[in-house]
Structure prediction request, 718 residues.
Amino acid sequence: MATLTSTANPPATRARASRSERLAPAAFLLPAVLVVLFVSIFPLLLSLFLSLSRLRFEAGGLKVQFVGLDNYRKLLFGSEQKVLFGTLAMPSLIGWAVLAVVAFLALVAIYRAVRNARPVRAIVGRAIAALALIGLTYLVVASLLAPGGRPGTMVVTMLYVVIGITFQYLIGLGLAMLCAQPLPGRRFFRVVFLLPMMITPVGVGYLFRMLADTNKGPLEPLWVALGMQDFAWSNNAWGARIAVMIGDIWQWTPFMFIVLLAAIEAQEVEPVEAAIVDGASNWDIFRHITLPAILPVSTTLILIRMIEAFKIIDLPNILTNGGPGTATETMTLYAYRIWRALDIGGSAAIAYLLLFLVTFFATLYVRALRGRVSTV
Amino acid sequence: MMKSFFRSASPFKPSPFRMLVSYLILGAWALIILFPLYWLTITAFKLPAAVNNGPFYLPFVDFQPSLHAWEYVLGEVGNDTIRLFTNTVGVSLISATLTLVIGSGAAYALTRFQFRPKVGTVLVFLGCVLLAVVLTALGAPWALAVAVAIALFVISLLTIARRFTRALSNNDIAFWLISQRIMPPVAVVIPIYIIFQQLRLLDTWPALIITYVATNLPIVVWLMRDYFASIPYELEESAQIDGASRFRIFNQIVLPLSVPGLVATFLFVLVFCWNEYLLALFLTNARAQTMPLAVVAQNATRGPQWWYMSVLVLIMIAPVIAMAIALERYIARGLLVGAVKG
Prediction:
């Protein structure tokens, strides 16, 4: 990034620089810093303290009692472990294979850091990240790819993020490629495809509840034809999870679509035209010209969506109320439910775990792409 | 004849066959998007019986449309609806405007000035905030705790903090501001609730506005920083030689050049505030409630009141959809610049 300094001014103007000119940089930046300090950093620290304490509502107000890491212990090893991590079982063969691949890749990353004689700090950082990644993978594998396993809110949240973003990106890219062709009437599609993003997630939740109704919804003939009119998807863990994911994909594909379309249209025309003249196939043009051109945008888009997707609450809350049981509950919804049960310390602890999880994945993602894609 | 169907007239135009396939796929996705919206619209005109007795698709053919839900929402509880709508419009417009003003100021500062905050100052400051939190939690009055923390901050700034010479750069500040978006709102909503309770601002516009500004500031800084960086500096230099002040340069040269970015960012933030549910749920309970809460409230003990809900959702999405259609070109262009530079 080209950062220009205010000292680049010619001397003549600097001599005339008034008091307000010297204060200008601070005047521009300070409001933002103050707002973030007041409404983000300060509450975050307060929240850290809350997550280490137990709050009780008593006559005359709140009573705060410091309990150390007790809230976290309860979540990670205690009575709430079954909700957060789910039921872990012996992974299946596929599960072990997935775990082995991830472990192998993590070891390769550490090995490369050692071989390239990176500073100790970097090697230790990679080792910690690798351990965390293997641990999280085990969590996923032992709850999803294991007979008898049941995913907890943490794995369900990750599942929504990964599946949701994958589909949103692929569908968005496909539609953007189609819409980038010189088709008459494509402006209609561009506008229509944008709409779901504008609808409140709460509304999307109810909309999909109406649509998914197997008796009164518009798809009833289809359910009858399939002999599934009595199938209550909301009582089926996977049915309910898929409903949430479909709602999320429906709502957020437009975001991917609109930016990818702009990126495709902004790419240079000459290489594509030259390739067409040389008789390159459409796939070759996409693979060797379009894809590299939109890769930087894609990585940022996925990062933005990843950060937002981890916070999902409205859709599962409305669509399934987190149920059946806690099958569709995300970590934000979980924290909200615990807060409703007046366990404020526990709620803050869940929120902090979520913060660690998002930060971990965002950092891992940015680090993994740094150097490979120029602009991340 | 058949051959020309699969081959295009010019190598730069898709063949008729390819156009047909493209239209089929695009049409299918348009149907996936529009059908739920169609269903929402007809549900708003259905009597409860028409909703509960199975799927009816076509007004006047399958069922007799009725305005009962509209009469209820706009007539019987019309005052509530108007209040909710005013709250949503007011809070989101003010929040989005403020976020844009504060955020683009910061984004501009980060591309044009050099900041070198000392690590020591930052650490001391964080320490003092932590001290204030702990003191308040231990039962000290918050005003006293803040006063002690400020005093300590000033003292250590003059003594200890100077010994740290490492300084941060603009990129660190930008990263710090943008990374605030990573933070899940649920992690801070309880302290924010407590703060606004202390300030007696719960269930008011300012509480929502301040919170929305803070949560959306990272987006504005992220998108606008790259937008400003893409504007050539020479224009500003020549204005500076002519003696224009920084604020005038910003207002009269930089902002007019950034209109696409500003429009896209504004709309983006506006939609986020407009649709926000979690924070509004915590921070309001009656007077300052926004539309998403009203939509959820239609899920009464008698079961979801689909017809009222649909009317509310339609009222709620109509303005944003109109804006999105009008500004579609700006959205794409504005978001692209931010996403390219990352």
Observations:
- Chain A touches chain B through 120 residues (CB under 8 Å).
- The mean pLDDT of chain A is 84.
- Residues 19-51 of chain A form the longest helix (33 residues).
- The CA atoms of residues 219 and 225 of chain A lie 10 Å apart.
